[in-house]
Amino acid sequence: MTGRRSAILKGIAPAWENDISYFPEKVPAEFPEEFRHLRNKISVHVTHERSCIDLTSFYEKYHKFVHMLYWNCRGRWGLRNREFPDLKEITKFSVLVREAGAAEMARP
């Protein structure tokens, strides 16, 4: 976030960048803990606590920070011109989901 603010202030940010008013000077202190808690409860643990997590509130408070994390790291998650590894059941499931989604989109 500091880098984005600096680029805007120096006049070197891309034309599509948000106004400086979009970026607070600091990330809220509670963001890391709340993000970790949400990530653990939503994507890892099978728990009854999932049903009472307020995703709307989290989105309203932290979307811009999650988006910046994704945007700044997305280049590191690519394949870099290498063949995607066969992850056995994970790959099989991913292909199944992709094909099911494509079939659904093709329906009139």
Notable characteristics:
108 residues; mainly alpha; 55% helix; 0% strand
Quaternary structure classification: single chain
Mean pLDDT: 79
Radius of gyration: 19 Å
Number of domains: 1
Mass-distribution shape: extended
Poorly predicted runs are none
Q: Helix amount, in percent?
A: 40-55%
Q: Which class do the helix and strand fractions yield?
A: mainly alpha
Count of individual helical segments: 4
Strand segment count: 0
Biggest sheet statistics: none
Order of helices and strands: HHHH
- Percent of sequence in beta strands: under 5%
Structure summary:
The chain has 108 residues and is mostly helical.
Description:
The protein is mostly helical and 108 residues long. The chain has one domain. The protein is 55% helix and 0% strand. The chain has 4 helices and no strands. The chain has helices at residues 2-10, 31-43, 55-73, 89-106. The longest helix has 19 residues, at 55-73. The radius of gyration is 19 Å and the shape is extended.
Summarize the helices and strands and which ones pair or pack.
Layout lengths: L1 H9 L20 H13 L11 H19 L15 H18 L2
